[in-house]
Recover the amino acids of this structure.
């Protein structure tokens, strides 16, 4: 199989200073990867490097095919005069000629994507009036309209209501079945065990491999003091003490 | 009077259309600064006896390109760079004006504009700015909106996002230069920021925002022109006062009719 996403010895950062170093991994079509790491550990930097927004300071990065980026919903503007449909239609910019007016086929594709995410009744709703989970689903619909083979998602389940989280999880499974590759930055260690691969990042790559590599020492090296172990009914549960931060 | 009215109508189209993305992209400070940055060029060109707009255009485009590049760098402070260049340009302009220009009337006209001495060249320049603004908004508007909405995700959405974003800065700089004869280096915000900022308080969608910004810019320009005629006041500052008053009134009205949040029991 040919890798759709590949990084070798990647270092990237800002102003010539590396925020991440020695990142090496490869993903094939239809694989999902959970990107774990503490706040400030370099998850967003890695996604930006994969998108080509940051030039590698060392190593190489390669994406086969178009990539879509889904930001954290709390980083989007709520005062913007756009509907859910308008946001989904932004995905057509990647497909067509930039000067071309929106066509009926574009609108149909956007409506279909929104309906797929359970937002058929919210097509004309103003984006800023939707709930956090609904806004996240609109951003995912925009990525679907892009028709990208690789999707990079920055904490897509953060602050999302259970119903939206369930819908998003189901979509991830569908996209994997369609042969698309998903990189999902997340703080949820337990859900990461359901992905095909995990990559632990704390400014440098701590581990990459099957979810079985998420041993206690790997998590401690990844999260340091942010990792706490709670006693649950079915045994110990690992949780991450996250703090809100500005990227 | 007719020439002045036509000039303001054309500039209102350019200002309303481009102002939409000025407020969406949060470029109000840049827009004010790019006008002020042209002041040294206006002074030098006036003293040299060449078209002031030529000197202004060179400075405005260079300034816009510099701010766009600084803003692209993560961790940079584009507002600080804008403020630094704004102060520097004004200071340089004042020094040049004191040495090169005779009398304060010329400096006043360069800073605050005049609708009395407009000629056909000014009208053609305003018409070109309006046409350029409309053409670019039609072709680039969706990409500019995507960039303003989600700057991080825009490069993945639109392959030419960076180039088209830079084009917005350049087109805005050129349109500002076209407005200098009428409103001067310090009052461009009256055309390129305030009407669109006022419309944004009420707009629910982008097309409505563009139309409302243009309509408001035209209404404010016409009102300002007649007020300046009847009150014998300079037209540029009058336009700025009218636009500022309209914005303040819109804010007050919106706050008054906005549904109050229910206090928790």
């Amino acid at each position: 199989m040919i890798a759709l996403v590949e990084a070798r010895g990647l270092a990237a950062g800002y102003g010539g200073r590396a925020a991440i170093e020695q990142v090496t991994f490869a993903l094939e079509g239809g694989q999902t990867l959970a990107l774990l790491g503490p706040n400030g550990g370099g998850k967003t930097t890695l996604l930006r490097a994969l998108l080509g927004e940051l030039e590698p300071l060392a190593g190489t990065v390669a994406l086969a095919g178009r990539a879509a980026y889904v930001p954290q919903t709390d980083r989007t503007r709520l005062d913007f005069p756009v509907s859910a449909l308008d946001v989904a239609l932004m995905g057509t910019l990647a497909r067509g000629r930039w000067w071309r007016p929106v066509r009926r086929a574009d609108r149909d594709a956007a409506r279909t994507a929104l309906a797929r995410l359970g937002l058929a009744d919210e097509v004309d709703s103003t984006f800023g009036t939707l709930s956090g989970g609904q806004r996240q689903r609109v951003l995912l619909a925009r990525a679907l309209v892009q028709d990208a083979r690789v999707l990079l998602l920055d904490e897509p389940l953060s602050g999302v209501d259970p119903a939206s989280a369930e819908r998003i999880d189901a979509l991830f499974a569908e996209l994997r079945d369609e042969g698309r590759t998903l990189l999902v930055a997340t703080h949820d260690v337990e859900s990461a065990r359901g992905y095909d691969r995990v990559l632990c990042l704390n400014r440098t790559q701590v581990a990459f491999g099957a979810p079985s590599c998420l041993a206690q020492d790997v998590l401690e090296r990844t999260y340091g003091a942010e990792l706490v172990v709670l006693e649950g009914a079915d045994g110990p549960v690992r949780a991450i003490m996250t703090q809100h931060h500005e990227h | 009077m007719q020439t002045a009215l036509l000039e303001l109508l054309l500039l209102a189209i350019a200002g309303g259309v481009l102002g939409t993305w000025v407020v969406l992209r949060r470029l109000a400070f840049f827009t004010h600064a790019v006008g002020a940055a042209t002041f040294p060029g206006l002074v030098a060109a006036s003293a040299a006896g060449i078209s002031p707009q030529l000197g202004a255009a060179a400075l405005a485009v260079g300034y816009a390109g510099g701010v766009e590049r600084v803003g692209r760098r993560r961790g940079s402070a584009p507002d600080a760079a804008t403020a630094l260049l704004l102060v520097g340009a004004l200071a340089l302009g004042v020094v040049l004006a004191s040495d090169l220009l005779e009398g304060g009337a010329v400096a006043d006209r360069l800073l605050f504009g005049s609708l009395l001495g407009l000629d056909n060249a000014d009208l053609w320049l305003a018409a070109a700015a309006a046409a350029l603004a409309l053409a670019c908004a039609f072709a680039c508007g969706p990409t500019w909106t995507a960039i303003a909405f989600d700057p991080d995700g825009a490069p993945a959405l639109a392959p030419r996002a960076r180039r088209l974003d830079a084009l917005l800065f350049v087109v805005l700089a050129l349109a500002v230069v076209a407005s200098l004869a009428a409103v001067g280096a310090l009052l461009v915000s009256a055309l390129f920021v305030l009407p669109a900022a006022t419309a944004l308080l009420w707009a629910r969608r982008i097309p409505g925002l563009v139309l409302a910004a243009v309509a408001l810019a035209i209404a404010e320009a016409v009102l300002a022109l007649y007020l300046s005629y009847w009150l014998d006041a300079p037209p540029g500052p009058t336009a700025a006062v009218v636009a500022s008053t309209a914005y303040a009134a819109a804010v007050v009205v919106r706050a008054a009719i906005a549904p109050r949040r229910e206090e928790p029991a």
